[in-house]
Amino acid sequence: MHLAAPVSPLTGAYERLGAVFPGLRVSEEAPGTDEGWVTARELADGGPALDAFLAWDDAQIIGDYGRRARPDVVASFGLHRYAWPACLLFTVPWFLHRRIPRLTADDVSFHRTEGRMTVRPRGFACLPGDPAAALPDATTVPTPEALRAELRAAVAEHLAPVLDGFRSRTRRGRRALWGMATDEIIEGLWYIGHLLGEEDRAVAELGLLLPGHTQPYAGGAGFRDLAGARGAVLRTRDRISCCLVYTLPGAETCVTCPRTCESDRVNRLSAKLTHS
């Protein structure tokens, strides 16, 4: 008789994430070791595994832009492509179920070409009223703000060694790297919140999570509205960090990049609204 895999307190959140964003599938199992997999610890160690990881970004940039980018630009692209989905491992269970996994750099692996991640949680935090609070690996905290503090700490615990692994490659200091981490948390959940049909709630929650004075993060969510045509309200923010895409020929800056002027933002966001 075939036995179904056990359901954890995080399974529902990861399944819903995969349903609205098929480009990322999360499974709860030991880190992948076959070809194509890399662990967060290997990226943090900064050796041959990180070299191979960044070689993919180098080749992709050449294919997209017809020229090789500076090594620090390649590294910035690579860090973004790990940190953006990695942050969702924490923020989506929190957003959907108010549960926060503890995942060190040893507990996560990534297969970028297949859009897959594995997680091996070492417990989770939740609120006292959660039905899962009775589980042996649960840690309860008393208030929503205490749970937000747990989320900030859990993401920082996971990302800190990875940022250190990328530091010399990106040629960025500590504040700039934590600015990147801040942006990945915000823009990842903002996007998934939109896919879930709960963008307004995601924006409000992110404003509480990252108000702008929560170390080690640099800056806050900082959402603001622009006026579009016929009374349309267009939501934007200014990124704290920069992906350096402007260094590549013909590349268009992000709509949230501080280099993107307000009129350009209005035009691009209005066009997106028209075609959505």
Overview of the molecule:
The chain has 276 residues and is of the alpha/beta class. It has a single domain, classed as Transferase(Phosphotransferase), domain 1, CATH 1.10.510. It has eight helices and nine strands. The strands form three sheets. The chain has a four-stranded mixed sheet.
Q: What is the CATH top level name?
A: Mainly Alpha
| Sheet having the most strands | 4 strands, mixed
Helix content: 40-55%
What strand order characterises the main sheet?
A: 1-5-4-2
Number of strands: 9
Secondary structure category: alpha/beta
Give me some keywords for this one:
276 residues; alpha/beta; Transferase(Phosphotransferase), domain 1; four-stranded mixed beta sheet; three-stranded mixed beta sheet; 8 helices; globular; disordered N terminus
Sum this structure up briefly.
The protein has eight helices and nine strands. It has 276 residues and is of the alpha/beta class. The strands form three sheets. The protein has a four-stranded mixed β-sheet with strand order 1-5-4-2. A three-stranded mixed β-sheet has the order 3-6-7.
